[in-house]
Amino acid sequence: MSVDLAQPPYATIIILLVSMAMAFMSSLINSRFTPREHREKLRALQSRIAALKREKDDNAKKAKSTGDRKLLKKVRKQEKQLLQLQSQMASLSLRQMRVLPITMAMFLLVWMFLTGRLLYWTVLPGLFTGAETVAYLPWITGEMNLNLFYWYLLCSFMSGTFFSRIFGLTGATE
Predict the structure, then answer these.
(1) Rounded to 5 degrees, what are φ and ψ at 42?
(2) Residues 110, 118: Cα–Cα separation, whole Å
(3) Cα–Cα distance measured from residue 34 to residue 31, given in angstroms and rounded to the nearest whole number
(4) 174 residues of the chain, pLDDT tens digit each
(5) What is the Cα–Cα distance from 134 to 12, expressed in whole angstroms?
(6) Are 89 and 45 in contact (CB under 8 A)?
(7) DSSP 40-79
């Protein structure tokens, strides 16, 4: 009996494992290249931004209902503070982008081995063409057929969130 690995359920499991391995490696690389202090500073900024937003929103509601000009002035100051904190957060977050070339190269290599293509060029015979159904998802109208791209994307989001939480990376802490 010949087993076709490009057909469900084998393809479903293979893509799930590949996306989990990629998310694990990406999170591992990100955690090693981003110092702990940097991640803690980002978390602290996130907390300060969330607290300031809540306080600003409460003050804005009170200022609107009471017509208090002092409170409205305070709300404007808080908005400026919030923008400053958000710009600090953005600059710190951009520093994490330095691992993007590493993870992109890793993704392109894995994608090449799965599909046999590197961008638009056929490099080697791949396991999947990308068009065939590799997974079935229960849906409201029956079942949804997912091709390689959509199944990988879904698995990647789930496993990326999972491993980000395990490694304590920013964006998955709240």
Answers:
(1) -65, -45
(2) 10
(3) 5
(4) 456 777 788 889 999 999 999 999 999 998 888 888 888 888 889 899 999 999 999 988 998 888 888 888 999 999 999 999 999 888 888 877 888 899 999 999 998 988 888 878 888 888 887 678 888 888 888 888 999 899 999 999 999 999 988 887 765 444
(5) 5
(6) yes
(7) HHHHHHHHHHHHHHHHHHHHHHHHHHH--HHHHHHHHHHH
Tokens at residue 166, please? 């395990």
Residue at 26: amino acid letter: S
Name the residue ranges covered by the structural domains of the chain. 10-167
Partners of 85 in the beta sheet? none
Q: How far apart, in Å, do the first and last CA atoms of the chain sit?
A: 49
- Reading the block at residue 144, the tokens are 């949804």
115-122 long-range contacts, CB within 8 A, separation 24+: 115/148
- Which residues 6+ apart lie within 8 Å of 71 measured at CB? 59, 62, 63
pLDDT on residue 54:
94
